[in-house]
Carbamoyl phosphate synthase small chain (Actinomadura algeriensis), 371 residues
Amino acid sequence: MNPALLVLEDGRVFRGAAYGAEGETFGEMVFNTGMTGYQETLTDPSYARQIVAMTSPHIGNTGVNDEDPESRRIQVAGYVVREPARVASNWRATGSLGSALRDQGVVGIAIPGTRALTRHLRDRGAMRAGIFSGAAAAAGEDALLERVRGSAPMEGADLARDVSTAEPYVVPAIGEKRFTVAAVDLGIKSMTPRRMAERGCEVHVLPATATAADILAVDPDGVFFSNGPGDPSAAGYAVDALRGVLDAGRPFFGICFGNQIFGRALGLGTYKLRFGHRGINQPVQDRTTGKVDVSAHNHGFAVDAPADGPFDTPYGRAEVTHVNLNDGCVEGLRLLDRPAFSVQYHPEAAAGPHDASGLFDRFCEMMEGSR
Ligand SMILES: NC(=O)CC[C@H](N)C(=O)O
């Protein structure tokens, strides 16, 4: 095992062994608490420019397969684990995680102290970091720290257009076609159009920079804005497009980044959480039903909205529909007089529990009711 270093922006250094590709990488240091689903996590485009640490201590046991990826490649900027599996064993496995990381040039590190790292991030907040191995690790710690401090921050980062599809494509409805959906790909996970297709939606996936005119040209029954990486305050183009969609009165559903863009389109602000929510067991209460979903999360930003009742927006009254029971943060929004809603978490559940899959039915009912 070759030595590697994980250097945090505040000067804390973790030493360990190189895992995956050797070299150097920079990104925002975050942690994910999921005990399963590492392949979905690694391929979720929302993790672009983030170094992800897994709190689950043993990673790679089931190798990698061709069915679980949420996009065409591993998207994380770097990967931190405690103990990589020495053997990949699963009937679906086509290879090991270590070789997949290596083949795709993803620099990782195995450190004994993923628990100490997580506690550090919970206390101090997500921060920039770098992983260095091979020749890159030869420079002194001070020089490496200097380079981490010179790397790009997540605040203000416009990354959705980098990970989005270059060309539109169509995901056909499974079974009888009931609806046409225009889905703006801000970093979309492949499970999301599939969940809609399973409900009879023909999903027209459009690039992140699609304008309202591009979206309406599909003549959709409903419009969807996806999850995605980066700071929502840097994606003004998506906010403008969504405003055009709302002006046209088309039904709208948004997930995660899509929820943040919806909030901004309604005139609300977004802000950075201290260390975010990344995992598959976050309790979220739907205030419209009182029901609590155990849900999949991956967000570092949140919408700032009045949670104590309906409030006015340029599109009429709106309300906070969902709250996180761990920290009270806003997890869902809706307009009261127009067919538009969004959630900050992940009903497509890849990976994660399926508690919230009914939100896709809610979108379909909304499209049905708006005909
Ligand atoms: N999964 C997402 O869509 C993440 C949204 C945004 N990049 C955040 O970190 O909050």
The chain has two domains: 3-149, 160-369. Residues 3-149 form a domain with the Glucose Oxidase; domain 1 fold (CATH 3.50.30.20).
